[in-house]
Amino acid sequence: MRAVVAGATGYLGGFVVRAFAEAGWKVRALARNPDGCASIRPFCDEIFRGEATVPDTLHGLFRQADVCFSSIGIRHVHRHPTFWQVDCQANLNLVEAALRAGAPRFVFVSVFRGDELRSEIRLAEARERVADRIRASKMKWIILRPSGFFNDMEEFFRMARSGKVWLPGDGSARLNPVHGADIASHLLSLMAGGGWNRDYAVGGPDVFSLRQIGDMAFHSLRKEPRYGYIPGWVMKSAGVVCRPFNANASALLQAFALLASRDGVAPPTGDHRLKDFFAKLAQGLPPPSG
Ligand SMILES: NC(=O)c1ccc[n+]([C@@H]2O[C@H](COP(=O)([O-])OP(=O)(O)OC[C@H]3O[C@@H](n4cnc5c(N)ncnc54)[C@H](OP(=O)(O)O)[C@@H]3O)[C@@H](O)[C@H]2O)c1
Question: How many domains would you assign to the chain?
């Protein structure tokens, strides 16, 4: 079996590459810059150089693919490229290329409650348009909707190290962050169990409030917790103000404003603990491998 992984150079995609390879699959990873693929190279049969934003560079990517996977997306607030160009259009380019190549299955990573929140959160809408296209195609599909990843929780750790953690809202909103390796092994069991043509919300084993995550980050650094609070309405208003100048920053602020006001607890999977992840960060060990 051959899997094609787009997003392989990122946090989740890296774990998916490893999980497929360890299950005995051949893995072809898409990369913009193969020089930056040292950590996944041992698990890949082939590194395919291409730009998901440029359809002409994708010819041959999905040749003889049994399963296609994409977690491509942006997590920065630079003005270019926008999330519409990457989270939406680049992923649509991949889906069209997979269809042209006759690929039979596609796994796509959206966001937790993306289907419910798409009218309120532009980042969710961008990814849900891709999910719509995949569902309407003749391929079999799985849409994953994870809650926050451990790598996103690293931001709490960075703020704690600098002395003060800024919390959205009053810090009481709850979520269950999930490790990339746990999502990857969950995906493999879904595929092995024939769980195609369904959406799956995925969270980690422990539910925390945002403030508890901050406490854990401070604790791992043996520092006294110190917090600032950013009201949801402030983030929402800032998002509206910066929308004409910076679509990415605006969309992120919009998403954070919602995070401040609602719990995001997904069905649990896996056994990686956020406490251990922070402990490794505090020891200066490489974080993504957990
Ligand atoms: N992080 C979370 O908490 C979370 C929670 C739920 C859902 N998700 C979804 O999962 C996705 C993946 O998350 P992640 O943490 O694995 O992200 P990540 O580590 O930032 O990886 C993103 C991937 O997208 C690629 N990419 C970024 N900009 C690109 C561009 N302009 N052209 C082509 N490829 C580009 C990156 O390639 P390069 O290495 O070449 O930049 C990388 O392979 C997110 O975008 C989000 O929609 C995330």
Answer: 1
